[in-house]
Write a structure and sequence with these properties.
The protein has 17 helices and no strands. By secondary structure, it is mainly alpha-helical.
């Protein structure tokens, strides 16, 4: 595969633009975010075409356009435009960063330290650098209960910290101070999806390090483990919730809401089809089936609703292939909050880190 010559300054600007877009998405300035994202789409499309698209890229883009054009018939134009924007950002970001690199990772470290600094500052000094009035309503209520970090969202901030931890463990093993800051900050955010995903990823990493994952390569063994896990979770969900209730700040209610959404056939079949649907339907389905509307509690289901079974399935396959070294982390976050499919910043950082790990293990 031909790898384009890395241009640090250009790629650094793209990463920062994606970061700004992600942060704006958690504020009332979502219109500005849309402008930046459409500018990024235009830029990435131009660059990807100028570098040369592969046949498989063209095939996926055709499926994307056909799928979303059909969705214009069944969905309001605003919903259809939102869905196609998210899909295009994902596909174009994957294609671009497949062959682009950062010569220097200092931009990642800069964002990492700034994020952790803001988390510590808010937790111990109750200092928030932005007025609560500009934060989107979903996260405004969390400002005074737990740190929101650079991304104005405890979920996003903790996910980025966990990503950096994965990078540090696999590439910079001796940097113990940064690793301590990572674990410490993850606990401060009280956003346990990223923490649990990181711990499970580390267990698999430990097995791989000592060549114990060969047993998981057997499809029968993997399928059996998955079936046991699903059965145990479904059968003992009430008992698990009772245990979580005894743990301070365990967010047991999130687990209690996720389980029925992931295993209830009525929910799955009523919300997912072959064409993209209104992503806000997920809230209405919650009201119908569990009698409570709390928003998106499963990113995996949301991806399939927004993109349809065909395109959503293709995007999931691409995501796991391009993020194979952090695939376990990706899978666990998809069960709850995951941002790799809605934020080009998280996707690009994930691809960069994955390629660094891949180069080290080759």
């Amino acid at each position: 595969m031909q790898v384009n010559k890395p241009i640090f300054f250009k790629n650094e600007i793209i990463i920062l633009a994606m970061l700004v877009s992600t942060i704006l998405g958690n504020t009332i300035f979502d219109s500005l975010q849309i402008i930046i994202e459409f500018a990024l789409i235009a830029f990435l499309l131009y660059k990807n075409i100028s570098y040369g698209l592969k046949k498989v890229d063209i095939f996926i883009l055709i499926i994307l356009l056909i799928t979303h054009l059909v969705s214009f018939i069944f969905n309001p134009i605003t919903i259809a435009l939102l869905n196609i924007k998210l899909s295009l950002m994902f596909i174009l970001t994957v294609i671009f960063f497949r062959s682009q690199h950062l010569n220097n990772k200092r931009v990642i470290y800069l964002i990492y330290f700034l994020n952790i600094g803001l988390i510590i500052l808010q937790h111990y000094g109750n200092v928030i650098l932005v007025p609560s009035s500009i934060v989107v309503t979903n996260y405004r209520d969390l400002i005074f209960s737990r740190p929101i970090g650079l991304f104005l969202s405890p979920h996003m901030s903790s996910t980025f910290i966990a990503l950096c931890a994965i990078y540090l463990i696999t590439i910079k093993k001796k940097n113990r101070i940064i690793l301590f800051l990572t674990f410490f900050s993850l606990l401060l955010t009280s956003s346990y999806t990223a923490l649990v995903a990181f711990i499970i990823w580390y267990v698999f990493y430990f097995f791989y390090k000592y060549n114990l994952t060969k047993y998981l390569a057997n499809i029968k063994v993997s399928a059996l483990i998955l079936l046991i896990f699903v059965y145990a979770t479904a059968s003992f969900s009430d008992a698990i919730v009772d245990i979580l209730k005894t743990i301070p700040n365990s967010r047991y209610y999130s687990f209690a809401l996720m389980v029925p959404l992931l295993i209830n056939p009525d929910y799955l079949f009523s919300g997912i089809s072959f064409i993209p649907n209104d992503p806000y339907e997920i809230i209405r389905y919650q009201e119908e089936i569990i009698g409570l509307a709390v928003g998106n509690e499963s990113s995996l289901i949301k991806i399939l609703i927004e993109n349809g079974l065909i395109l959503g399935g293709i995007m999931l396959v691409i995501g796991f292939r391009k993020l194979n070294h952090i695939g376990v982390f990706l899978f666990i976050t998809l069960l709850h909050y995951s941002f790799f499919f809605i934020s080009p910043f998280f996707l690009s950082i994930g691809i960069i880190i994955n390629k660094e790990i891949n180069n080290k293990t080759e």
